[in-house]
Amino acid sequence: MQLTKTIYKHCSAVLKPIMLMCCIAVVAFSAMIGVEATAKTVSIIDSGKTTTVHTFSTDAKNILDTAGISLGGNDGYTMSDFSEGKATLTVNRAFDVDVSLDGEVTTVSLTGGTVADAIEAAGIDYDDSDIVSHTLTTRLSAGMKIDITNVTYNTVEELVSVPYTTKVVYSDKLAAGTTKTTGGENGYKLVTYTQTIVDGQVTNTQVVSETVVKAAVPATKTVGTKKAASATQSSTANNVQSATNGKTYLTAAYKYVSSLKPGTDFELNSKGIPTQYKKLITGKASAYSGGGYTATGKHVRTGYVAVNPKQIPYGSKLFIRCSDGSYIYGYAVAEDTGGFINWGTRVIDLYFSTESACIKFGVRNVEIYVL
User: Are the C-beta atoms of residues 190 and 227 closer than 8 Å to each other?
Assistant: First the structure.
């Protein structure tokens, strides 16, 4: 018995410090467990709806499971850090976006991003020339449809005919009323175009270059002016004579457009051109009509023509004919002016009595003899 007491005292002296340390460790561990086990508050935001969960877990998936919220294959989530035992967990639901190219639609499911992200997710390659229905930085939204229009460019070459021109000359060696045409051959040029093709349709064609392969050869039309003996010359179908029935303006057999008569008769040569004049001006003439008054205050009529007064002063007496003989406007006086002088391509504007006559005349090369 004495031996047993001795052993007990000895063991108690040894075990008491050990037991004390174990008790302290247990208390400390329990305190830590108590801190960790404090319930936390998590606000779950899902499609605009907020659900509050009280949990001891800090794992987002466990928290969603606790709340009974499931995720689709393309859904995602973000979770904030805990602050004073609170955090926010946001569920990002995926939505469909259609991406179309050449009529083929690819549907992708994303939780957000930009148009560029959707095109990349669809696996579509495109370049800067293609047309995208939205800017690449536009934010995606549910049900958005993105159309990509394929644009390509094509180069086309075409051999185009170049019509030859005809030069009219007058000859007193050829009988009046007859004509003779020599030469005249069309040429060819190689035209290179660039075609813009949108979704397989040509929307624009632009000429890039033109190269003459064969130059056109002009023709020469000789109009006879030789008068037949003891015969007067009749007017041709286009209201022009190839010679005069006499030697003066008033006795010539031409059908003039102008209704003016010169105060002093003047002589014409065998080609129907004044034998005496101060100056010859050549260029393009246009036509006008409509009534009213001239710039000099006179009532308009055939024979009163519009000029650039800096080139042909008002009051100048003129004889006007088309260079190819198609019209003999006749005796005229510079009495008017107009906006045509600013176009830089016309030298005179001839007054006609009707609009249809103006349209028929159009724009022609003329010879203006300043008398």
Answer: no
DSSP 134-193: S-TTPBP-TT-EEEEE-EEEEEEEEEEEEPPPEEEEEEEEEETT-EEEEEEE-EEEEEEE
Query: Hey, how many other C-beta atoms are within 10 angstroms of the C-beta on 65?
Result: 12
Q: Which residues of 229-255 are buried (b: 16+ CB within 10 A; e: fewer)?
A: eeeebeebeeebbbbbeeeebeebebe
Residues sharing a CB contact under 8 Å with residue 313, sequence separation 6 or more, in sequence order = 334
Question: 46 is written with which tokens?
Answer: 């899902």
Please, are residues 174 and 160 in contact by the beta-carbon 8 Å criterion?
Answer: no
Instruction: Please write the tens of the pLDDT for every residue from 144-170.
Output: 999 988 888 889 888 888 998 898 888
Tokens of 110: 């994303």
| Residue from 155, 96, 147 nearest 126 by CA | 147
Task: For residues 47 and 30, give the distance between their C-alpha atoms in angstroms, rounded to a whole number.
Answer: 40
CA angle 91, 92, 96 (to 5 degrees): 145
Write the pLDDT tens digit of every residue in 335-346. 998 777 776 778
- 8 A C-beta contact, residue 212 and residue 189: yes
What angle is formed at CA 89 by the lines to CA 85 and CA 94, rounded to 5 degrees?
Answer: 175
- DSSP H or E segment with residue 49: strand 49-55
Amino acid at site 53: V
Q: Say which amino acid occupies 291.
A: G
DSSP for 80-129, please give it: PPPBTTEEEEEEE--EEEEEEETTEEEEEEESS-BHHHHHHHTT----TT
Q: Give this prediction's pTM.
A: 0.38
Strand duo 217-226 + 166-175: pairing: parallel
Instruction: Give the tokens for residue 167.
Output: 């030069």
Pairing of strands 179-185, 217-226: antiparallel
- Outline where the chain has alpha helix (H): 2-36, 60-67, 115-121, 355-361
Instruction: List strand residue ranges (DSSP E) for 177-316, in order.
Output: 179-185, 187-198, 201-214, 217-226, 279-288, 304-307
